[in-house]
Amino acid sequence: MAELNHSTVSEFVLLGLCDSWELQIFFFIFIFMFYLIIVFGNIFIVMLVFTDPHLHSPMYFLLANLSFVDLCLSSVTTPKMITDLLKENKTISFGGCMCQVFFVHLAGGCEMVVLVAMAYDRYVAICKPLHYTVIMSQRKCIFLVILSWIIGFVHSVSQLVVIVELPFCGPRVINSFFCDIPLVIELACLESYFLEILMNCDSGVLTFISFILLLISYIYILFTVRHHSKDGAFKALSTCTAHITVVVLYFGPCILIYVWPLNIPSVDKFLAVFYSVITPLLNPAIYTFRNKEMKVALRRLKSQYVCSK
User: Fold this and answer.
1) 5 and 94 in contact (C-beta within 8 Å)?
2) How far apart are alpha carbons 3 and 128 in whole angstroms?
3) Which of 97, 234, 250, 276 could covalently link to 179 via disulfide, CB atoms 3.0 to 4.6 Å apart?
4) Fold of the CATH domain 2-302
5) Please, are residues 42 and 284 in contact by the beta-carbon 8 Å criterion?
6) Sign of torsion, CA 256 258 261 265?
7) pTM higher than 0.90 for the full model?
């Protein structure tokens, strides 16, 4: 069957974001600028966390890993989308398509687990502050990061082993700017209804479990703190606002794409752009501009730069 795949379909045709050349030029400038900010913003956060001793804590260690995963997630699809916006014929090889499927779900699954780990870190910091340094040790943080990549890898492989063995005999047109599982399955030369349900369940289980764990952790934080102080819930909510914002922005598109798909091409394209371009851009902005310690670290870096001159 693998020989059939490569002999009948060696490449797929991507329809991209739109048909209008003027809109494609606009999207090229818009998305190219966003991607530059994503690259430099997330790299800057990783470097700042690892070079500033004041940020050597579990929360910022996990934040640096989140920024790295965001950079990886955006880099899987965005560079090709940008270059394709200047092309009339947009194609991707069969191997390139499978690589996009693999790495999108690897980074996506990893990010979900990292977000859960960050919620667990906030739970320990707010609900068990006296035991925080013991519970969130360096070894525990490294374990959580490694676990996130393992879960992302297992999730991605479980999707890929099914997709790569499908018979593709035509058509080969994908109505999007990158290869994703629901779009590729539609092109298979077999009845795909039950397979689509199976793939959605695979992605949905990880998404649903991660989302439920996040909800439970934040609800428990608010109820725990509220018993100690009337203003405790508001302070806890303020502390976790940035994290909650990122969770909503990240899981919203994931749920609408993989758990309850709308199957509206224009909406799916918007959600895909939001998922791969907007969210990785908002994460560094939210965590940097809403976090006092990050602001102080930026001022320290600026003062060191001025003094070095």
Assistant:
1) yes
2) 57
3) 97
4) Rhopdopsin 7-helix transmembrane proteins (1.20.1070)
5) yes
6) positive
7) no
Q: What is the DSSP string of 108-125?
A: HHHHHHHHHHHHHHHHHH
The owner of tokens 């405790």 is: 232
In sequence order, the 6+-apart residues with CB closer than 8 A to the CB of 24 are 16, 17, 18, 85, 86
| Rounded CA separation 47/32 (Å) | 23
For the CA atoms of 232, 234, 237, 238, the dihedral, rounded to the nearest 10 degrees, stands at -110
Pairwise CA distance, residues 269 & 216, whole Å: 31
Across the beta sheet with 173-174, what order do the strands follow? Answer: 91-93, 11-14, 173-174
Per the listing, tokens 């989302």 go with: 211
Cα–Cα distance for residue pair 114/151, rounded to 1 Å? 10
What six digits make up the tokens of 255?
Answer: 């749920």
What are the pLDDT digits (tens) for 123-171?
888 888 888 889 999 999 999 999 999 999 999 998 888 888 888 877 7
Q: CA–CA separation, 22 vs 29, rounded Å? A: 11
CA distance 282 to 212: 23
Most confident of 117-126, 144-153, 288-297: 144-153
Which residue, 116, 52, 271, 109, is CA-closest to 183? Answer: 271
